[in-house]
Automatic annotation (TrEMBL):
<feature type="transmembrane region" description="Helical">
    <location>
        <begin position="43"/>
        <end position="67"/>
    </location>
</feature>
<keyword id="KW-1133">Transmembrane helix</keyword>
<dbReference type="Pfam" id="PF13000">
    <property type="entry name" value="Acatn"/>
</dbReference>
<dbReference type="InterPro" id="IPR036259">
    <property type="entry name" value="MFS_trans_sf"/>
</dbReference>
<feature type="transmembrane region" description="Helical">
    <location>
        <begin position="118"/>
        <end position="139"/>
    </location>
</feature>
<dbReference type="InterPro" id="IPR024371">
    <property type="entry name" value="AcetylCoA_trans_1-like"/>
</dbReference>
<dbReference type="GO" id="GO:0035348">
    <property type="term" value="P:acetyl-CoA transmembrane transport"/>
</dbReference>
<dbReference type="GO" id="GO:0016020">
    <property type="term" value="C:membrane"/>
</dbReference>
<feature type="transmembrane region" description="Helical">
    <location>
        <begin position="87"/>
        <end position="106"/>
    </location>
</feature>
<dbReference type="InterPro" id="IPR004752">
    <property type="entry name" value="AmpG_permease/AT-1"/>
</dbReference>
<protein>
    <submittedName>
        <fullName>ACATN protein</fullName>
    </submittedName>
</protein>
<keyword id="KW-0472">Membrane</keyword>
<keyword id="KW-0812">Transmembrane</keyword>
<feature type="transmembrane region" description="Helical">
    <location>
        <begin position="6"/>
        <end position="22"/>
    </location>
</feature>
<feature type="transmembrane region" description="Helical">
    <location>
        <begin position="151"/>
        <end position="175"/>
    </location>
</feature>
<dbReference type="GO" id="GO:0008521">
    <property type="term" value="F:acetyl-CoA transmembrane transporter activity"/>
</dbReference>
């Protein structure tokens, strides 16, 4: 029902845009220096060879390693400890207004000459939330009872997620503001696309590695088989 409703909304809104939105027929001459796909890739290659851009790319490719496990694995571990998936999904609903408001507030601090200052200031707090999430996972089975989880547990989870969102969006908006600020206006679209792509990659590869490492780093015990080890997937299956 959820997917059907939003699918219908999507179809209706896009159809209305197609019917009522008119293209601007007065073509404005573009100042972009690129003429085709090959030119664009040559331009991207020339941008990425610049020492400052290369240093920045290395920074944003590795900046999110410290909190990749907390971001990618916490929700899965809470489900593993018995928290219903639908309850975690419901906790995401109050986050939506926060996610809309936060960029508006944070943009005031990233509009100056040094937008990355916000990025640097938010990073230690986001790293600390990794420890807080680890504590949350450890605490979860200790508050569980036959009827599920108490209300105060969900209140703590909601507050933790809300505060985490503040650090996450502070870093996200700061990096976007910096990318917009340093991009050459003549090739702004190409320049920003490159930096944003590297930024997205910098968030995705550590999360993938964190998820891959969950199984080998998880300590397992075989119940009722003292001589059997569960150290790897084959042994666990046996």
């Amino acid at each position: 029902d959820f997917l059907f409703f939003w699918g219908a909304v999507f179809l209706i809104t896009t159809t209305l845009v197609a019917l009522f939105k008119k293209e601007n027929k007065e073509l404005t001459p573009t100042k972009e220096e690129t003429k085709g796909i090959m030119d664009t890739y040559r331009l991207l290659f020339s941008i990425i060879k610049m020492p400052s851009v290369l240093t920045f790319c290395l920074l944003i490719l590795t900046a999110k390693v410290g909190f990749s496990a907390a971001d990618a694995v916490t929700g899965l571990k809470l489900v593993e400890e018995g928290v219903p998936k639908e309850h975690l999904a419901l906790l995401a609903v109050p986050m939506v207004p926060l996610q809309i408001i936060l960029p508006l507030i944070i943009s005031k601090y990233t509009a100056g000459p040094r937008p990355l200052n916000t990025f640097y200031k938010a990073m230690p707090f986001r790293l600390l939330f990794g420890l807080e999430f680890a504590f949350l996972v450890w605490w979860t089975p200790r508050v569980r009872h036959e009827g599920g989880f108490p209300i105060y547990y969900y209140a703590v989870v909601l507050l933790s997620y809300a505060l985490h969102q503040i650090t996450l969006y502070s870093m996200y908006v700061a990096i976007m503001a910096f990318n917009a600020k340093v991009s050459d206006p003549l090739i702004g679209g190409t320049y920003m696309t490159l930096l944003n792509t590297v930024s997205n990659l910098g968030g995705n590869w550590p999360a993938t590695v964190a998820l891959w490492l969950v199984d080998p780093l998880t300590v397992k015990e075989c119940a009722g088989a003292q001589e059997q080890t569960c150290g790897n997937a084959v042994a666990a299956e046996v």
